[in-house]
Amino acid sequence: VQLQAFGGGLVQPGGFLRLSCVASGFTFNNYYMSWARQAPGERLERLALLNPAGDSTTYADSTKGRFTISRDNAKNTLYLQMNNLEPDDTAVYYCGKGRTYYTPTVDLRGQGTRVTVSS
């Protein structure tokens, strides 16, 4: 079972990035998926949650409508579209797999991809 996140990088304030997370080793469309981030010296912050069918989302207030979580079950891939990025969005971003079809609690996280927002 593996999650590989990529798509991070250096972006200027006001810019955008799309993160991807490729899943393998489990039936992707049977599980909740999520994104979280951890800024330097901070605790892990949950950002967005998506149900197995991809039609129900939950977002943290910090995303302020700037982030969109989505999935392509045919490609076993989870996405996070991030727009209007701010310096406070600088962090390592992790995708996560839910424990069961009905349980969004994360039981596996990928290795993370680093996002730096700076001019």
Number of helices: 0
Give a quick account of the main beta sheet: strands, pairing sense, barrel closure: 7 strands, mixed
Question: Uncertain runs with pLDDT below 50, 5 residues or more?
Answer: none
Q: Ends: how far apart?
A: 37 Å
Order of helices and strands: EEEEEEEEEEE
Mean pLDDT over the full residue set = 95
> Which structural class best describes the helix and strand composition?
mainly beta
**Fraction of residues in H or I helices:** under 10%
Integer-rounded radius of gyration: 13 Å
% residues in beta strands: over 45%
Q: How many strands appear in the DSSP assignment?
A: 11
Shape: globular
Question: Would you write up a description of this structure?
Answer:
It is a single chain. The chain is mainly β and 119 residues long. It is built from no helices and eleven strands. The protein has strands spanning 2-6, 9-11, 17-24, 33-38, 45-50, 57-59, 67-72, 77-82, 91-98, 106-109, 113-117. The strands form two sheets. Strands 2, 4, 5, 6, 9, 10 and 11 form a seven-stranded mixed β-sheet that branches. Strands 1-3-8-7 form a four-stranded antiparallel β-sheet, with no helix packed on it. Strand 4 (33-38) and strand 5 (45-50) form a beta hairpin. The radius of gyration is 13 Å and the shape is globular.
Fold topology:
Layout: E1 2-6, E2 9-11, E3 17-24, E4 33-38, E5 45-50, E6 57-59, E7 67-72, E8 77-82, E9 91-98, E10 106-109, E11 113-117
Parallel strand pairs: 2-11
Antiparallel strand pairs: 1-3, 3-8, 4-5, 4-9, 5-6, 7-8, 9-10, 9-11
